[in-house]
Write a structure and sequence with these properties.
The protein is mainly alpha-helical and about 475 residues long. It is about 70% helix and about 5% strand. It has helices at about 5-15, 40-50, 55-90, 105-115, 115-155, 165-180, 190-220, 235-250, 260-265, 270-300, 320-355, 360-365, 380-400, 405-435, 440-470, and strands at about 90-95, 100, 365-370, 375-380. The strands form 2 sheets. It has a two-stranded antiparallel ribbon. Strand 3 and strand 4 (about 375-380) form a beta hairpin.
């Protein structure tokens, strides 16, 4: 969405006492007709959910063991689906079929819970979106380095040092994101989400296939019921690692913060919440199947030696060309996922600035730029170009300073899971559905929320401990 577009649409809403109805061009809120379907919404969700973190699930299962690992993944998937279904009911206020639309997660919180909750939600949501952009920059550089190392090992031998710096790869990823960030709004990147979703299936399938092949080669299933053994790590390290594994799994299922934005791309009829429930069920089922398979086969292949990432931690060296393909797919996927997570933050900042400075020509102006091959003009916003480029530069520099993907992601997963995936959806659903306090359903929902809070706390503690250990040996810009 262009900056001037945001402003124009804001003005339409201000005068929309008689919204446009039964139009082939506009929806009931006066905005351009939405075109999203179950399939495009599912693609957005899968793009957001299945990140490179899927390949660290073997490590997570390894910390928890054959019993707790799969059970915890399944429980996270059920909680995520249930609370996402509750959140989908809050896209429209008062009536889920015909009520006033909420265009963002924060709009839904504002309409249902009030201003204090909005401020808290805004801080948590946008800090998480910012953190995810940093995490994906780090992850992409790791995969790009892995391609170079894989080729080096192939030509120089498995015992060669093959050292690479991640900084040039982070810069390259940032340059790509500066260009892609000029895409005006969320609804116009559906194609990028489709491509990214295909890529996520590609590298997940390769990782799964290599895990199965390794188990067959070993002729046995490695691992234990209780996870990594004392002796391989100290007792206290096992505790921290188990907590950190919870954060990694929580992050793997985190997408609630952009669910409302995705839902706002869906056409109606049928009612948006019905489409979104189907998309959520399909997406969570598919991702959980991949998570279970990749995590369990990876652990079965390597046991206590399971690397932090099957394709970049060099659990596998050959076939090197297949590992290269998988890592290229990871990079392409993360390029798309970066945009899926960043676009809501872009829209929020641009709408706020547009409201603060409604008469600014710098913010509202658009320069038509002819695009060769497309045979059309692209409307370049100077403000969008400057601010989004600054955003990408900042995330890139921070990534170069703190390239601890697993630990940082664990913290983000821990801090974002309870408030965004559980607390706010549950509280909004209680409010909109008028569930009586101290009734059976109210008590069950509060127990669910409290248990998830405890999980988030212990996961955060474990992840912070991991960061502290990394900082003891890390030198900035030397990775």
């Amino acid at each position: 969405m262009t900056d001037s577009g945001v402003h124009k649409q804001h003005r339409v809403l201000d005068i929309s006492s008689a919204p446009v109805l039964n139009s082939d061009t506009y929806d009931d809120d006066g905005r351009k007709k939405r075109t999203g379907t179950v399939w495009t919404a599912s693609a957005h969700i899968i793009t957001a959910v299945i990140g490179s973190g899927v390949l660290s699930l073997a490590w997570a299962v390894g910390q928890l063991g054959w019993i707790a690992g799969p059970i915890i993944m399944l429980l996270f998937s059920l909680v995520t689906y249930y609370t996402s279904a509750l959140l989908a009911m809050c896209y429209r206020s008062h009536d889920p079929d015909t009520g006033k639309r909420n265009y963002t997660y924060m709009d839904a919180v504002r309409a249902n819970l009030g201003s204090w909750h909005v401020k808290t939600c805004g801080i948590v949501q946008y800090v998480n979106l910012f953190g995810v952009a940093i995490g994906y920059t780090i992850a992409s550089s790791i995969s790009m380095m892995a391609i170079g190392r894989s080729n080096c090992f192939h030509s120089e031998g498995d015992n060669s040092p093959c050292k690479f710096s991640s900084n040039p790869y982070m810069i390259a990823f940032g340059v790509i994101q500066i260009f892609l960030s000029q895409i005006p709004d969320f609804d116009q990147i559906w194609w990028l989400s489709i491509v990214a979703a295909v890529m996520s299936f590609t590298y997940s399938t390769i990782g799964l296939g290599l895990g199965i092949a390794k188990v067959a080669e070993n002729g046995m299933v490695k691992g234990s019921l209780s996870g990594i053994s004392i002796g391989t790590v100290t007792q206290i390290d096992k505790v921290w690692r188990s907590f950190q594994a919870l954060g990694a799994i929580a992050f793997a299922y985190s997408y609630s913060m952009i669910l409302i934005e995705i839902q706002d791309t869906v056409k109606s009829p049928p009612a948006e919440h019905k489409t979104m429930k189907k998309a959520t069920l399909l997406s969570v089922a598919v991702t959980t199947a991949f998570y279970m398979a990749c995590g369990c086969f990876g652990y079965a292949a390597f046991g206590d030696s399971s690397p932090g990432n099957l394709l970049t931690g060099f659990g596998f060296y050959n076939p090197y060309w297949l590992i290269d393909i998988a890592n290229v797919a990871i990079v392409v996927h993360l390029i798309g996922a970066y945009q899926v997570y960043s676009q809501p933050l872009f829209a929020f900042i641009e709408k706020a600035i547009s409201d603060w400075f409604p008469k600014s020509e710098f913010i509202r102006s658009e320069i038509p730029v002819w695009v060769p091959g497309v045979n059309s003009y692209y409307k370049l916003s100077p403000f969008r170009l400057v601010w989004r480029s600054i955003f990408v530069v900042i995330t890139t520099v921070i990534s170069m300073l703190l390239p601890f993907f697993n630990d940082v992601v664990g913290i983000l997963g821990a801090l974002g899971f309870w408030p965004l995936t559980v607390y706010f959806p549950v509280e909004m659903y209680i409010k909109t559905s008028k569930i009586p306090k101290w009734g059976t359903k109210w008590i069950c929902l509060q127990i669910l929320s409290f248990v998830c809070l405890l999980i988030s706390v212990v996961a955060a503690v474990g992840s912070v401990a991991g960061v502290v250990n990394d900082l003891k040996v890390y030198k900035p810009f030397s990775s």
